[in-house]
Amino acid sequence: MLSVAIFLLAHVIPPSPIVRPKLIAVFGRRAYLIAYSFLSIGLLTWMIMAGQRAPYIGLWGAADWQWWATIIAMPFSIWLVLAGLFEPNPLSVSLRKKTLDTTPGLSVQVTRHPVLWGFGIWALVHLFPNGDVVSLTMFGGMVLLAIMGFVVVDRRTKRRLGPEQWQTLADKTSLFPFVALLSGRMDLKIPASSLLWLVVSALTYLWILFSAHAWFLNTDPLAGLGF
User: Fold this and answer.
1) Are 63 and 158 members of one domain?
2) Under DSSP, is residue 46 helix (H, G, I), strand (E, B) or coil?
């Protein structure tokens, strides 16, 4: 699929160590991140719409647990993306870059890569109930892209901050969700600003579940549950 290839290239070439600094030097970091976010959303929308028009070649059958997995995981996925984008995070993808000297946002307490985890979880749980070749290519590719992002972003941030400062900040959180909290490296604290993103994420999830998904993609996410 052409849309899949372009989507993957857009997440390999612009963020590369050669291209990204030049784009930031020309447009500024915030403008680059905003433009790149809109580009990603546009390409993602194109890829999904192209996938809906592609011939269906089934690989596995549908089961109730597949739909439930998606319904249950998506609130967490949406929150990770929204909170991760707008809460300060010097270690990963974020529209804000500040140190973790002050109390970090809840998403950063959970994982140092909330946005990547959010997209990865979204792709994975949408792969389950869509057992066809196109979905495997599209959603499977995005899962791999998110996993590769962990390595690429960590490597880039180490270069920017230096290994010692990166390690100091990374020790306050964790790659895998909740590990820093469960191990005691991070004390759970919920800043007032984080409550806003919990509410926004919940409302966004309900809007997608009961309206937007069916409206934009002509697919009711509750249909598989018999509702």
Assistant:
1) yes
2) helix
Query: What are the pLDDT digits (tens) for 126-172?
Result: 998 888 888 888 888 889 889 989 998 999 899 888 999 999 889 88
15 close to 160: Cβ distance less than 8 angstroms: no
When divided into structural domains, the chain yields a total of 2
97 sits in the region (left: phi over 0; alpha: psi -120 to 50; else beta) called beta
The amino acid sitting at 129 is: P
Q: Do 105 and 164 have their domain in common?
A: yes
**What pTM did the predictor assign?**
0.84
Q: Where are the alpha helices (DSSP H) in 87-226?
A: 106-110, 114-127, 133-161, 163-170, 179-183, 192-207, 213-217
Residues 6 or more apart from 104 whose CB is under 8 A from it? 87, 88, 89, 172, 173
Query: What is the CB neighbour count within 10 angstroms for residue 96?
Result: 13
5 and 83 together in one domain: no
Residue keyed to tokens 């600094």: 21
Residue ending a domain, choose from 54, 70, 89: 54
Domain that holds residue 104: 59-225
